[in-house]
Structures are given as C-alpha cells and as structure tokens.
Amino acid sequence: MQEPASYLIYNTHTDKLFPDAFRNDYHVHILCHEGEMSFSTKHKNFTVRANDLAIWQLTTPIFNISYSKDFDADFLLISREYLSKYNPEMLYATKGYVFIKNQPVISLREQNKIIINEDFTQFKSRIRQPYSLFQEDIIGRLLQVFLFDLWNVIEDELDHTVIDDNSTRIFLHFLFLVEEHCKTQREVQFYSDKLFIVPKYLSQICRSVSGQPASTWIENFAANELRHLLNNRELTLTEIADQMNFSTMSFFSRYVKKVLGVTPTEYRKENS
C-alpha cells in the first residue's frame, strides 16, 4: 500500500476537490480568492472570504463546513511528520500554533496577500514537477519560507495575544523552558519540576492544548537543535554530543536516530 504524500496542493475550481476531504490527514492551509466558506470549531463559527487565509490544524476538530458555489481557493496540505521535520523555528511555531488554534482565519492585507500568494505559486510549481533527487528538501525549504512569511503576517497578533486559559499558560511556559534547556535536559521530570507540577499532569496539559505529549515537544525542540549543530561542519560529532550533554557517543547516536530518523554520520552524508 502506497504511503500518503507528505505534501499536496490543489485548487477548488481546476481540481474539483475541496479541503474538507483532507482535514483528518493533513494540516490544511486555504488561500481564498473568491466566494465564501464557513466552518465551525468547538467554540466558534468562522467565515472565509476573498483575501483570507484559513488554517485547519490536525488537532482542531472542524465541523459544519459549507462553500458558496463560486468558492475559489488554493489549499496546501502538509503532513504532521513533514511539518515537524522542516519547522524552521520552534518558539514562533508554537506561538503561532496557539494563536491559530483560537483564530484559524487570517484576513490578509494587500501586500501580505501578494506574499502568501507567491508562496502558494511556488508550491504549485515545485510540487507538480516530475520527482527530482532533492524534491523533498526543496519543498521543505519552501515550507520554511512560507512559515516565516506567515509568522511575519501575524507578528503583531502574536505579540499582543492575551492567554486566558490556565492550561495554555502552563503549556507556553513549558515551551519557553524547553527552548532554553533542550540542549541538555530531555526528561519530562525536569520541566514538570520547574513548573511545580507532576510529569503526568504536564503531559495531560500538552495533550489537551496541542494533541501531543510533553515528551514529543521536547524531542521536537531537541531535533531542531541537533539539525542546527550537525549542519555546522566546524563541530565534530564528539563536540556536539558534549554540548548536548550525552554521556556516551552510542547514546548520542541512538537519540539522533530516534528523533531525526538517521544516525549523526548518516545525517551529515545526506546533507553534505
């Protein structure tokens, strides 16, 4: 059986497909050009119109979806694993995640619409080309550019977002701690102690807010740090292992294999 694609892009008019068919398998990014779409989350109803960008996260249940007859939109589908692999910056990714969970429809100003539309055009051009040797990484780099553009668009909202829910506050505090300490601390117990709660409760909070346990977020941050260090060819593998507080090289190699899917040596060969 063929594995699902890591990324896809469609247009509602030309492809005769609609984003709701994919909402349970992908993070869905919908750029509306014309017409309207409406949908509901557990707490609110939303309407998407021309020049809006809607984002359906996998962890957010979407209901009551309807489209106008003239609804024209491009929609980009990104798998959970692919997004995790190519996320360029974990802290803004998390702040954006929390913001979008509560506000999944973003109205784009004209200049921002041009920028996001250019990103979608690049995705369409590259994804629809015949498969090439470095296509996975090329699309991954395009995804990183798109995410940077997206965070720039919502930067003011991110900086002024008021977090009322206590679980979300704890989750964000946890992520700030992980960003600070992930180089050397990779156990849930360390972070729960810092937050004065038990590990089980911390993981429950992480699951309720993000759909992922605390351990997965720690691994995501550590993986991001590992990629950054492994891409620095001036550092030896031993130096990287020391910086990240691994007691032995074999433990270091096993951990890299776990979070990146390849050993440190294999990673450097694949990214040489």
Characterization of the model:
The chain is of the alpha+beta class and 272 residues long. It has 2 domains: 7-159, Jelly Rolls; 166-270, Arc Repressor Mutant, subunit A. It has 12 helices and 8 strands. Helix 7 (188-195) packs across helix 8 (199-210). The longest helix has 19 residues, at 135-153. The two termini are 32 Å apart. The mean pLDDT is 89.
Q: How many β-strand stretches?
A: 8
Major sheet attributes: 5 strands, antiparallel
Helix/strand/pairing category:
alpha+beta
The level-1 CATH class of the largest domain: Mainly Beta
Please summarize what this structure is.
This protein is α+β, with helices and mostly antiparallel strands and 272 residues long.
Write the layout of secondary structure elements.
Blueprint: E1 7-11, E2 27-34, E3 37-40, E4 45-48, E5 52-56, E6 63-67, E7 72-78, H1 80-86, H2 90-102, E8 105-107, H3 110-127, H4 135-153, H5 155-159, H6 166-181, H7 188-195, H8 199-210, H9 214-230, H10 237-243, H11 249-260, H12 264-270
